[in-house]
Amino acid sequence: MRAAVNVLLTLVTAAALGGAAFTGTAHATPSKAELIAAAKKYEAPGVRGANDWNCKPSPQRPRPLVLVHGTVGIGWANWIYLSQALASQGYCVFALEYGHRPGNPFPGMAHIEQSAPQLATFVDGVLAATGTEKVDLVGHSQGGMMPRYYIRFLGGAAKVNDMVGIAPSNHGTWHGTWFPEIGFQICNACIDQTPGSALLTKLNADREVEPGVDYTTIVTRYDEFVVPWQGQQLSGPAHQLTNVVLQDACPSHFSEHALIVASDLTVQWVDHALTREGPADPAFKPNCG
């Protein structure tokens, strides 16, 4: 009888502790190798200058840089210029591919709430591989907005130093391809990027920047895809946020939504933002070429 009582007490105690007596190592912290292996599942193939998992950041570029593509933004195409340009300046560059829907070959199509955890997994692997505490994020279009969900709701604020959004869909877009009847069938992320969507309402409620993270948006007045272009910009304190319009410093610059990530002017602003304390300096004078 006493043995039976002891067994019962053991079961009750285990239940009170959340089953800890029986889970063993089920909740053990993943090893470095496990974190890297999980991240590599989201590695974007064929991105030149990116995804060298042996790369170690330098004192001049102390944090690894994670590139986050846009909707339907196949990694190698989205970053065909920017990844190599930044790697040549000494950055440890990593690029993921996220947001696949079943039966759809294009990335960035799933709901933001499904894609953001994939970014979280990738960042954890990059941190494990490089031995650093924080990353810098550079994203294009949806990739400039989706990481804000990771930063705000999934613990990313403790792991991200700078968030640079290039033509980001921070407040959605009225572009004609975001029709719900199309989006619900093939592109859930398109619905999330409709102005006033439940996702954007949640993301932008109360504040648009998170404490501890520096934000820079880089936009062009000639963006024909994320419209109006003013909706790409964020609101927040000046010590934490800078909204850059390329034509303010270089009036004759004519890149639009796609070419903005293939612009040397964009590279200059990105490098400037990432190599100083705080966000980009609005007074920075790039070489307009």
UniProtKB/TrEMBL annotation:
Recorded superkingdom: Bacteria
Signal peptide bounds: 1-28
UniProt keyword list: Hydrolase, Signal
GO molecular function: hydrolase activity
Protein name from the UniProt record: Alpha/beta fold hydrolase
Lineage: Bacteria, Bacillati, Actinomycetota, Actinomycetes, Streptosporangiales
